[in-house]
Amino acid sequence: MSEPILEIHDLQVDYPTRVGVVRGVDGVDLTVYRGEVLGLVGESGCGKSTLGAAIMRLLRPPGKIVGGEIVFQGRDLMKLNAEQMRRLRGAHISMVFQDPMTCLNPLQRVSDHIVETIRTHHPEVKVAEARKRAAELIDRLGIRAERLDDYPHQLSGGMRQRVMIGLALALNADLIIADEPTTSLDVIVEAQFLDQLRDLQKQYNLTIILITHNIGVVAELADRVAVMYAGKLMELADVFPLFDEPLHPYTRGLLKSVPNISLTDDSLQIMRGSPPDLINPPSGCRFHPRCPHAMPRCERESPPFTEIEPGHWTACWLYGE
Amino acid sequence: MPTTNDNLVEVRGLRKWFPVQKSFIERLVTRQRQFVHAVDGVDFEIRRGEVFGLAGESGSGKTTTGRLILRLVEPTEGSVVFDGVDIAALSGEEVRRMRRRMQVIFQDPFASMNPRMKTGDAIGHSLEIFGVAKGEQKKRLVLEMMEHVGLTPARILYDKFPHQLSGGQRQRAVIARALMLHPDLVVADEPIAMADVSVRAMLLELMVQLKEEFNLTYLFITHDLATAKYICDRIAIMYLGLICEMGTLEQVYRNPQHPYTQALLAAVPVPDPHARRTAPLPKGEIPSPINPPSGCRFHPRCPFAMEICSQEPPPLRPVPDDEGHLVACHLRS
To answer: What interface predicted TM-score (ipTM) does this complex get?
Structure first.
């Protein structure tokens, strides 16, 4: 495997609320390697978006990182000041959000967005030069050059999302965090976008953390998959073993409850219950109240995140020891 | 107007054009009115007791069609016959009475519940509006329905406000509310699109179970063909205001005839990394419904487009040797 680009150790994120503290991310350990697409999946409220925002140190207040380390290319991001962090964002770590319409400035043309992004980080680049780069960029993204001077509302949803990727590519970001990038897109446009993302990823050896609730999108694009539940990582493996032989009962339940277009597969299994309230999470393993294999131990002790087979990690008492 | 008994809803030549808003000056200058051709002439029927799916991308006109059937918007042309009665011809009061028999479930349960109304009162509101029950009797009926849809413990949840419920519970409340008056038809517009994976499966199961219990007919509007597979008996695929293919689920999914249907089915991401998609996709995105393309509306994106496709719109015709399967494509004639 290639070199690690991002290492997260025992990360903890808290959201204080009036009724108690929600621990949105609870002791996550995760390494991302250069050139891979890491899929981060889970249901809403599992902490996947919080984890993404924490890496950028863009948590919405009152959210706060209360413990752990985020090491990006050898630098501990927790130790950077606001100005250092600002320089890092966009240039080295870039984020693509679900809804491009709320991320693009409605009063700025597409070209302005790209030119501004380039010149903020590289003030020595002349406007004309930056515009030339912007034109090349959107051409690579399959948008016709004359659209460069369009405003965001004049573009289609798929084009807007491609502009967002373009902004990440404009500065050759080392790491792209894409949070539900295709959720607002229609199915054919989604597929087109995924194809394009895959091509760009190969061409530029991009490193992408793909945060999504859509198991199908992960199956299409990811090299490795991390499954989150109630603020914790439940399982982490290469995409094939994860889908072929999922270890954690939550992963198994999740995969079986995904609607599948194939007519031969007719069973939709139902995972009973719902994700826990994170102000009062269940004791021991957080999945134990819904787990079909729960043992007395699961209620008492939280299972450690352990490597069961090379590269295949899970937090479950069914395995090991 | 005579109706065969097994059709609960008959839609004939239904059309809805929305005028495009223009500024005063623009109107003076151009003198030309433009319309969004949201629904542009669709015919289909919904049989009693079936789940009829209406699928397509955003802008295909599927939601407008649902709203036309409920007469939440007035049709520009065409008719909707509900159980033998043309609802377009009804007066306001008659429509109101007819609505007892047709209910709707929207995508976003949060937006479709009054945030200041307790869950139980919201579910039972229609009982009061139609003078069916009030007070203790209403409460009893509501609690019964809440048990039915799995909104338990019902007595406790009755007094909660929508923001105190989980997403799944809210959608159950919306379903309960739709069923309070024992309607014949339920128009479900993306009823589970906002729910999480595990909740989706539960809601789908609930909808199937309630359909049997209450003898319902569903119009199931969705963009998600994978979800439609688990509930629909028949399905129509819409593109830019027109139906391009219609048939039983089996016919449309196993043997899709229209290049658009084929593309739509192929584009659904499959939860299996061994089955990564390789088929080519149609180019571009759904065009504007203000000036829809001439001829077949899919022709600018169609990989098989012929000369005739840009000239003549293909009618919706039966597929040979496949009863009940219809397609609108010049390739198949």
So the answer is: 0.84
